[in-house]
Every structure is written in C-alpha cells, then in structure tokens.
Amino acid sequence: MSASPSLPLPAVAVRRLSGWLTHLGVSRDAFDDTVGLLSPLLRVHSLQARLVERRAETPSATSLYLQTGSAFPALQPGQYVIIGVTIRGVRHRRAYSPRAVPGRPGQIAITVQRQPGGLVSQHLNEHAQVGDVFDIEPPAGEFVLPPQLPSELLLIAGGSGITPGMAMLRHLDQTAPGTRVTLIYFARSERDRIFAGKLADLAKRWNLLRYVPLDSSAHTPNGQEAGRDATTATARVLDTALLDRVAPGWSQLPTWCCGPAPLMDAARQIWKEAGAFDRLRLEAFAPPQASGDPNARHAVALRRDRQTANFEAAGNLTLLAAGEQAGLQIKHGCRQGICHECTCRLHRGSVQDLSTGQRIDGEGQPIRLCVTAALSDVDLESLN
Ligand SMILES: Cc1cc2nc3c(=O)[nH]c(=O)nc-3n(C[C@H](O)[C@H](O)[C@H](O)COP(=O)(O)OP(=O)(O)OC[C@H]3O[C@@H](n4cnc5c(N)ncnc54)[C@H](O)[C@@H]3O)c2cc1C
Ligand code: FES
C-alpha cells in the first residue's frame, strides 16, 4: 500500500519555494494563486485536479478520471477525498472514494452515483466536462485495509458503496493476490451494478476472489422483504444464512461494509449478535437521519458575527436542515459530518449527535449542525 506522505521532488521544491516566500510576506493563498496561473495542478496548499476523462458505468453512475498535481498525497485504498464543485456561483463540497488508475501517474478515478434530487451528484454526472478543474482535498478516512494485510477478508457493498471496495480489490489484486476475498455486492439489478463487467472479469482470473452479485431487496414498510438473489432466484437480504452459505466462518473475518442505511443496519445487528462487531468496519455515504419527534418545536438561537438568528427545529430534522427550512443560509460543506464547515459551539440545551447516537448537553462543546438534532431549546454560536 502506498501510504507514504512524502511528495515527489517537484512538489517538495515548490513547497520549499512557498516556505521561503512566506518568510518574505507572501501568503500561501497568494503563492497558490500565482503558480496556479501557470497550471492549477502546481498549487501546493489548496489543491486542484483536472477532469481528463468521463466513463459511463451504469445509466446513473459515471466515473470521472482526475489528474492531480504532484503535491497530492498518496492514496490509501478505501479513503475518501472531498471535491469542491462550484454550481451557479456557490461552492459545494462532497466526499467521493477514489481509486488509483494503473499506468497513469497522479491520476485517480471517482465514480459518482446520481442521487434523486442530489445537487452535486447530478452536476457531476450531467454537466462536468473534460477540462473542468475542481478543488480537491487530501485523502482522508479510516475505512482502509490494515498495514498488515489479513490472509482472508470479506467485503460487503450496496449500490455506490462498491467504490471503496473496488479500490481495495484493485490494490489487493496488484499487490497481494494471495489474499482470499469474498465480495458480496447488492445492487437493484445487474443493470445498476457499478463495475459489473470489471468485477466478473476480475473474479474469472483471480481464483481466490469469490464474487457474489445479488439483486438487492426492497425493505417494505411492514418490515417484510422482497428481492431476488441473482444466483439462486430466491428472496435475499444480508442475513446469517447468506453469510454462512457464501462466506463460511464470516464472523472471524475482518469485514468492510459500505452501502445504504438498511444494509449497514443489518450488518451492524448481525455482527453485534455474533459478538464480532470489532471485526466489522462500516462506512456510510448518506448522512444519518434524525428520528426524533417530528412535532417537537425546539427554539434555536444561532449567533454568528454578533447577529442572532432564531428558528424552530423539529426532532426529526438536523439543525442544518431545520435552519435551511426556516430560510436561513447556514455555512456548510459536505452535509455528512466530515468537513466541519458547519461546526458551532453548543452553549445551552441538549442535542443528539446522529453519527454516534450520543447526547450532548451544552457546555460550549463543538457540534456539527449537519449531523445533530435538537433534543431541547438550544443556544449556538457559529465557529466558521
Ligand atoms: C466517506 C464518503 C465517501 C463517499 N463516496 C462516494 C462515492 O464514491 N460515490 C458516490 O456516488 N457517492 C459517495 N459519497 C456520497 C457523496 O458524498 C454525496 O453525498 C452524494 O454524491 C450525494 O450528493 P448530492 O449533492 O448529489 O446530494 P444532496 O443534494 O446533498 O442530497 C440530496 C438528497 O439525497 C440524499 N442523499 C445524499 N447522499 C446520498 C447517498 N449516498 N445515498 C442515498 N441518498 C443520499 C440526501 O439525504 C438528500 O435527500 C460518499 C460519502 C461519504 C461520506
Ligand atoms: S457540513 Fe461538513 S461537517 Fe457539516
């Protein structure tokens, strides 16, 4: 795994030059803006990448190949990058899970699933053009393979949740093909399965890869499940019977699971009941949903730049969504709890952090509005 934080020589040289100029009073932004006039890929502080190729993967998912500059750090398979996209003059930031592109130094590929009503995913699928330049932040995230690779592992993916798994598979195929891997991949249908052909080819030539493509089930409101196992034509969701059949000894295997909330909830419950939760790593793509009282009307006072905005928050909305519903423009980025752009200090009242389930009682702690719901009236102060 190429996890070295060291930079190739040109970037080191450019960064050193930037360091000298900083001593002379040239700011990092001014330096980046100046070298960026030559090429946006020369920037060393606020990084950018250029779209060099687009490939349709399914009717609703597109791979975007991005050329990064030499200051872009090495990528660990499974990590995410935050991409900044300007749409109608407003910059939005979203996380995507890239993979390295073999034979193309400095190139990474992201695959973006179009979400219904999704601002950035629709823009990237429909309007992003070869030649476009995006802001890109260094790779981050803990959903990665360990430095000491296990001899056997299990990957579970649903929908676009295959992207970090694909990065891991490619890495293992190239550097550790002696690893025994089972991939269980749920998609609505074969047509919607991202990388369907590539995965089938990979499984044909890598005999230690067991690839289990399944048509996912719809969870109906009464809790019943419908669906079809593409290989056996029987109803299927993630359950212990499936795991016993396709990955015997699964509870002992290090496991990575990424997909929609019902799949992740099922995995969480199964691994908890098996006493194996410490072997399960989960990554959520969609923001957590608040499940509090929709009829609650908590009074929120949000102070920013010596001005206070007041609004009401229902228990089933994040504080960010509640503020936006009240017509406020609240500073935010990823809407997923990872960029910290929406961080506020909680001075009074109680909230629930939806990413951990933890209750926080106001004593001046930082909270992220996009993944927090009010449990009482609250006083907040914006930190951005
Ligand atoms: C660590 C991480 C890695 C990610 N990697 C990828 C990736 O490789 N490929 C990819 O396509 N996406 C990935 N995502 C999701 C991505 O960041 C965006 O959330 C997604 O593209 C939707 O953004 P949007 O602006 O189109 O939707 P928004 O305008 O923000 O939201 C529109 C609606 O879609 C819902 N929504 C948002 N995201 C999802 C989702 N993932 N699933 C279902 N509903 C959703 C929202 O709740 C909202 O109702 C990742 C997210 C995280 C946190
Ligand atoms: S918007 Fe990114 S953490 Fe809230």
Description:
By secondary structure, the protein is of the alpha+beta class. The chain has 3 domains: 9-136, Translation factors (Elongation Factor Tu (Ef-tu), domain 3, Beta Barrel); 152-284, Nucleotide-binding domain of ferredoxin-NADP reductase (FNR) module (Rossmann fold); 297-382, Beta-grasp domain (Ubiquitin-like (UB roll)). The chain is 22% helix and 32% strand. The chain is built from 8 helices and 21 strands. The chain has helices at residues 9-23, 28-38, 119-126, 162-175, 196-205, 240-246, 261-273, 319-325, and strands at 48-58, 61-68, 81-87, 90-96, 99-100, 107-113, 133-136, 152-158, 180-187, 209-219, 225-228, 255-258, 280-283, 298-304, 307-313, 343-348, 350-353, 359-361, 365-368, 372-374, 378-382. Strands 4-3-7-1-2-6-5 form a 7-stranded antiparallel β-sheet. A 6-stranded mixed β-sheet has the order 11-10-9-8-12-13, sandwiched between helices. Strand 17 and strand 18 (359-361) form a beta hairpin. The longest helix is centred in the first third of the chain and has 15 residues, at 9-23. The model is unreliable at 1-6 and 218-235 (pLDDT under 50). The chain binds flavin-adenine dinucleotide (FAD) and FE2/S2 (inorganic) cluster (FES). FE2/S2 (inorganic) cluster is lined by residues 332-335, 337-342, 368, 370.
